[in-house]
């Protein structure tokens, strides 16, 4: 077990180092002076230029510059935004929880809907129900996320008026920022009507969550269907049928547990897809997450913000994916026995 943990830790560390190297060299690939891209401050005179060059060791080797860059990252000095003039560390930690929250909503909804429908399709294998669910899953997977988001806005916001058009919560509510997760901040706040604020957040979250969850739900349906079919065709399941157990008994005693185990690692990998789709949908719904923030940085050619945002999102995806995969590997005896080359 310790060997597996060490290998995963080394793999994650190497990946993060590669990401940091790519982020560092972006300062030399963007237009403008590299020191401006490193500091995030427009340099107006020679004295500022000389001071910044001394601070970032721009006259020394790339290795020394990279060392100072990493030191600044660990100290929380990620530079400043060209657009707002605020420290990038504060801005990213302010918008990142909103993206994580939206992705979590979509993942929960996808699992809640996708796994039961996947089991239903597998138990009705090669029947009308199976073909119908497969057709719906193919259709849902083929719909572009941005087009679906615009469609639900047109129908449910503009025509029917059921849900808000944009935003995370109504401007009527002033929720003090504590954690960045709006639901948790509501419960930690001292506002009078917390239930009304929660209902308002839910109404704002429904349309973007549905837009993101559709693609992931269709994937989970197909993954679950395939896993259940493979499990039900195994020898120990056939032996259970031979002992006279009904389909319901076999499914609940043996099928569900063994079919879900291969699904969990694949569900963890869907977080990357969810976060990517969330960054697209955030722009359409004006959701105050890191996706919308990065798009605004690109519009304003805010190179320090683009570089820091890409590094933060990439590091989050790598850490989350490898941590979940490691947890599942340690919990599943079959995966613990896999050879080193399987990683």
UniProtKB/TrEMBL annotation:
InterPro entries: BPD_transp_1_N, MetI-like, MetI-like_sf. Keywords: Cell inner membrane, Cell membrane, Membrane, Transmembrane, Transmembrane helix, Transport. Pfam families: BPD_transp_1, BPD_transp_1_N. SUPFAM superfamilies: MetI-like. It is a multi-pass membrane protein. Its main location: membrane. It is found in: Cell inner membrane; Cell membrane. The chain crosses the membrane at residues 12-30, 102-121, 133-158, 206-224, 263-285, 305-328. Residues 96-328 form the ABC transmembrane type-1 domain. This is ABC transporter permease subunit. It comes from Paraglaciecola algarum.
């Amino acid at each position: 077990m310790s060997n597996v943990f060490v290998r995963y830790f080394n793999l994650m560390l190497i990946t993060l180092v590669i990401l940091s190297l790519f982020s560092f060299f972006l300062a030399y690939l963007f237009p403008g002076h590299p020191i401006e891209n490193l500091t995030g401050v427009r340099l107006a005179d020679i004295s500022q230029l000389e001071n910044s060059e001394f601070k970032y060791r721009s006259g020394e080797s790339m290795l020394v510059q990279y060392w100072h860059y990493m030191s600044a990252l660990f100290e929380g000095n990620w530079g400043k935004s060209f657009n707002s003039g605020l420290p990038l560390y504060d801005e990213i930690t302010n918008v990142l929880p909103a993206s994580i929250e939206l992705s979590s909503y979509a993942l929960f909804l996808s699992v809640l809907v996708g796994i039961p429908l996947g089991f239903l399709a597998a138990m009705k294998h090669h029947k009308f129900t199976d073909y119908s669910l497969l057709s719906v899953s193919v259709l849902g997977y083929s719909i572009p996320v941005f087009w679906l988001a615009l469609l639900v806005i047109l129908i449910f916001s503009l025509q029917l008026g059921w849900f808000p058009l944009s935003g995370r919560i109504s401007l009527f509510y002033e929720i003090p920022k504590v954690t960045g997760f709006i639901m948790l901040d509501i419960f930690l706040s001292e506002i009078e009507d917390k239930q009304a604020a929660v209902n308002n957040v839910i109404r704002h979250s429904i349309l973007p969550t549905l837009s993101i969850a559709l693609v992931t739900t269709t994937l989970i349906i197909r993954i679950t269907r395939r896993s259940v079919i493979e499990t039900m065709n195994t020898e120990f399941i056939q032996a259970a049928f031979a002992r006279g157990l009904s389909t319901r008994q076999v499914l609940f005693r043996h099928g569900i547990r063994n079919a879900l185990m291969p699904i969990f690692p694949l569900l963890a990998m869907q977080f990357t897809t969810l976060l990517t789709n969330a960054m697209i949908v955030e722009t359409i719904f004006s959701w105050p997450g890191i996706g919308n923030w990065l798009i605004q940085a690109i519009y304003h050619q805010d190179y320090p913000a683009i570089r820091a945002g890409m590094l933060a999102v990439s590091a989050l995806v790598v850490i989350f994916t490898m941590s979940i995969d490691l947890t599942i590997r340690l919990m599943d005896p079959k995966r613990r026995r896999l050879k080193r080359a399987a990683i």
